[in-house]
Write the structure tokens for this entry.
Amino acid sequence: MTTPNQKKDFTRAPEFRLLIIAIAVFAFMAVLSPDRFLSPQNLTSMAFQFPEFAILALAMTITMMTGGIDLSVVGVSNLSAVIAAIILTQFADPTMAAGQSLMWLGLAMVAALCIGAIAGLINGSLIAFFGLPPILATLGSGLVFTGFAIAMTGGSAVMGFPEAAAWIGNERLLGIPVPLIVFAVLAFGLHLLLTRTAFGLRVTMFGANPLAALYAAVDINRMLLKVYVIAGMLASVAGLVIMSRANSAKADYGSSYLLLAVLIAVLGGVNPYGGYGRVVGVVLAVLSMQFLSSGLNMLQVSNFARELIWGALLIFVMVINTNGLAVFRAALSKPTKSS
Amino acid sequence: MSDVSPDAFIDLAGITKRYAGVTALDGVDFTVNHGEAVCLAGENGSGKSTLIKIISGVEQATEGTIRIGGDAQPVLNPRISAAAGVMVIFQDFSLFPNLTIYENIAFSTQLTGGKRLFERGKARKVAQEALDRVGVKIDLDARVEDLPVAHKQLVAICRALASKARLIIMDEPTTALTEKEVSALLGIIRRLKEDGVAVIFVSHKLAEVLEVSEKVVVLRNGKKVAEGPASEFDTKSLTRHMTGRDVAEARPSPVIADAQTLMSVRDLSKDGSFDNINFELMSGEVLGITGLLGSGRTSLAKALFGLIAPDQGTITVDGNPVPIGDPVAASHARIGYVPEDRLTEGLFLSQSIVRNVAIGRLDEHTSSAGFLNMGGLVAEAADWLKRLKVKAPDIEAPVQSLSGGNQQRVALARWLSRTPRVLILNGPSVGVDVGSKADIHDIIRELANEGIGIIVISDDLPELLATCHRILVMREGKITDELAGGVATEEKLAHSLAS
Amino acid sequence: MSSLFSKDFWTRNETLVAGVIVLFCIIATLSDPQFLSVTTLSDLLRASIVIGILAVGAMLVLVSGGIDVSFTAIAVFAMYSASVLALAIWPDMPWPLIFAISICVGAALGAINGVFIAVFGLPTLIVTLGTLSMFRGFLLTFIGSQRISALPPEMRDFSRGVIARGTTEAGSFYSFPWALVALIAVILLTWFILHKTMLGRSIYAIGGSLESARRLGINVKGTQFFVYVYVGALAGLAGIIHGSVGRMADPFSLVGLELSVIAAVVLGGARLIGGYGTLTGTLLGVALIVIVQNSLIVVGIPTTWQSVTIGLLILIGTGVPAYRAKRAAARAG
């Protein structure tokens, strides 16, 4: 139960625990391997690595805020990337003048974003108008989106882009990696959207109690459509970053990112049943994960150990956040107690 | 009355229960004899649910002794209590919607039998016997989710019987039943009593079950304030004991003579819910709509707010038609709706008090750039909370930390901040303590004086009389009677409801 | 079991899925008369064994009101570690013992899920998402990440054993492996548990209403714990069959299949809210997914469209009942 007398205290928020975890992981890695972990190369390579799945985690976050989920994010990002890649390879070629290829790049990006928006509109309609549970609607639609990407490419990678296409994923602006800038802008934008706009407040309130939102005359269908369109467009941005970094597009890129995105969102304190979630928590979760995996990389720990640690971290944080330990202790001391 | 007679099935003496500083029960004596029906009456928070929890072993008394069938029970837990034959039928019946009737009835007998295998044939037999005992014919293989409420209740009763119930405790047994179903239930209760099964009715509305009861016990603030033969009580005396005062509330001031028509409803019909509803609501008028559960009153209220799309008919506010079946359009037409079930429909329990109010006014506080003006939003919400005298230590605290009465005021504040023309209040004082109830009635009268048209949907007759200028009575989806608030009395209203 | 033609027969998911399968077979036979043969049947059955066993487990979890995405990781973990163990200590270990080890490892991993879900009360999706990562990470880090094709000879012997084999008149080869018996045994055992034991009825009861189950005195934690252990054991069995039949212990296989398996179960009528799900429906759902995965080409749809087809099937198969329920709720008010 809540204790209204207690002053609001940042140190009690789940995000604070995440901050501690992120700092602890960073410090731990820095101490263990100061020359390599803190080296500029490592720091920049980290900054290039995480934005693509971090953006997917943002997409997951907004859908989870409503008590939903978007299992189609990877499908959407690959389909968007494939469409963009097809435009780039069909109409632009590496020998083209810079201005012209930039124009095609712009067009390809717009097309990718449109795909994301349409995919989101489909997901939102299935959920809002047809009443499908989000988990099934997006599971099914995700297969369809991936399927279209496979059907269009025959399952092979699309490559051979003009040079400009590599810019988004590999270049720097004022010394900062472009993917990091993209992620920072999107994260800040989503933070503003969720906390400073009517839409964001409605999303949170709907997630807390959908029925009460109906009785409060919230336009639920419109809100859900918007949520899934935003998720779809975020996914397509992630797709473009992946495409640019890989310098190719393929229907099955980033397949491990789906569960990773869910994991990060939950680790970041987003309530999977809706009603609570903060972008800052998700960002801290992303950073913790990245510090951890880079650090382990430095320490010659296998890539697979990362997965083990991620999973353990997720469950550890859940146990703390839900006071699972207290429940456990109570269960031990009073075996016959019924709630 | 609390002397231990040999007939006593259960006897509680001097029961006190304290929770962290709060005394929920204070030295209560309570006896139920074999085959006796007892009404346990009290407002919310009177301690009646605590008493039931103690009898069923869910909670342990801080002080006092409990005897079941003559044996002292120093430590009562749910298992001992159930083994002794105490069965509670909760308001939600605690059934498994996905299982068949016979499984629901026989589940606990199979469970307590300690068997590992599920004996289908035996389960069916047990279920059939229980159904025969109450004299009801229903298909054993039907799924519970497909049953009407009254049948679900019967299944719950049969389950209790199948578990060899000696005492059945029924929590608010009649609220969800139609009049016909109530009389069928009473017939079943009589049969059970002849079999020696005792019954406790727990309710804040007991008039309906008085006729099959032997005894009435009234709790207030954790103390037993009245006990006696059921024949000595009527609705009025029960209310007096429960509330501790004579309910002589103010009557509404009359509607001004040249009031304009605010809302008009024409030929509104919805198959299976309500039929050919016509009425008009004047500016400044409080219109009551009452009827038994299942009479269509709640469906009608929802239809007025667009939560249900009627099959035909029109709703106009200030002469402008309101698109039907769309709550967003209804709210744009400045119709407000405060639902009956605050906890699931009315409020966002985990969210802050201020957000619960502000959700209604987000668009008005959005700048042209699309951002919320947080300061203005919070200030306005805080202002409404103050005007409605919401007692909250911190408006940023979750709304679930408030008492029922304060929660209801938060729900009201949300709609009032939108300056509605028509406000529909479904069960405005359900689950609210007596003091807050009177305050809410004051608020309703004040709002009417400001010119808002108010529709009060309720089955609480004193409430209707205290607030309404006019009362429409619904039966089986139709408006069957219209009473002027000024001349209506509780007797007249009760008669009109039941006839 | 309710009678075959109960009144909701025509609106059940099972009927819908069976209809689609029959329709598919008719079209397939019209376009290729060879389709309706014992060879096709044996191919499809062989492809159904592993998915079928996994789906039965996934169904049980859905019925209990949870969701499990870790069972593929458990299957691979159990299969690979049992194979490695056998090779290390006793390469000639008889296959029943290898199978038993795999099943026990699976059950132990399932018990870990069970502890977090039943004892700590954490949300099932999150727990199994976490353990999916953990099991897979542990396997690949500490046990091995190399494919092993030199499996213990007994495992190969198991995969060679057939109930029946032969050649059709048209000259195509067919065989029904012993592994099929495992699927049938799993189905019978699960049917027995679900319908004939109090434990099974308790699983349905918990899925139907957790609160009611608690009030009635059902051992909720014990039942939940059993469900995850049983599902783990089934995954261990499915994993070792997958390894034996494929004649390779591949630590990267199976994971990624979990959502398709859940999709098959949901197509068969199990509901995410818990309390609903039948073996018949689950097997029909598996059959449909397997047919689409293997025989799409026969009806003239290129294999590259397989994923689109399965996705559309899920959307239609779950969308139609969902839309019907939404309409019904709107009508009832």
The CA atoms of residues 81 and 318 of chain B lie 60 Å apart. The mean pLDDT of chain B is 84.
